[in-house]
Write the structure tokens for this entry.
Amino acid sequence: MALWLPLIFALGYAIVSMRFSVWRTQKMLDAQSHPLRDPKLEALTARMAQALDIPQIKVHIFDIEPVNGLAAPDGRIFLTTGFMKKYGQGLVTEEELASVIAHELGHVSMGHAKRRMIDVTGQNAVFMLLTTFLARFVPLIGPWVAQMVSRTLMAHLSRRDEFEADAYASALLIKSGIGTAPQKSLFRKLNALTQNRADGIPAWLMSHPKAEERIGAIEANEARWLGQQRISR
């Protein structure tokens, strides 16, 4: 039983921490957001809604400065005020913002927000367990090793979710007649647009795949889909 106590404690602590993070994030989103009001962007979301055969796609503006889009655990989609400012300055087009919305719809459709919460809970549990055991044998570097292992695990899981959401967005953008060009052009701008993007955003809503890899995956998907269309004809 003594061997199981650290595992039980680690899992319990991770679950409580995650639930608190979700609650705090929900409160923050409720207090610091409002519905999107932009005719050009809403016209594009209406086209995507028609492609999905749903009445509408609701988007909210999250009042923080970092440039980002996110999908909350309750299924709501947000663009940040920082993103909308870039749009107002002409640095981002409405089609590029539509690609962000399509990407976040992918996260919602595939249940990624909830899956990420589970992943982070596991990551925190792994970190606590490794820290506890490694500290006994390598007290100076044990916590560092535990942190590196848990971060590597989370990075892998986050990359998986991002590529899945990108593929969903590409398919939706093509179906709605917008195309993937805005999706790819936005990725080319990300480094300049997303400095300090993590400020105020929970870790379980973050991921950092390379823009070049994402563009390559989009183009590979398009080539495969076009090939399948030719074969079906």
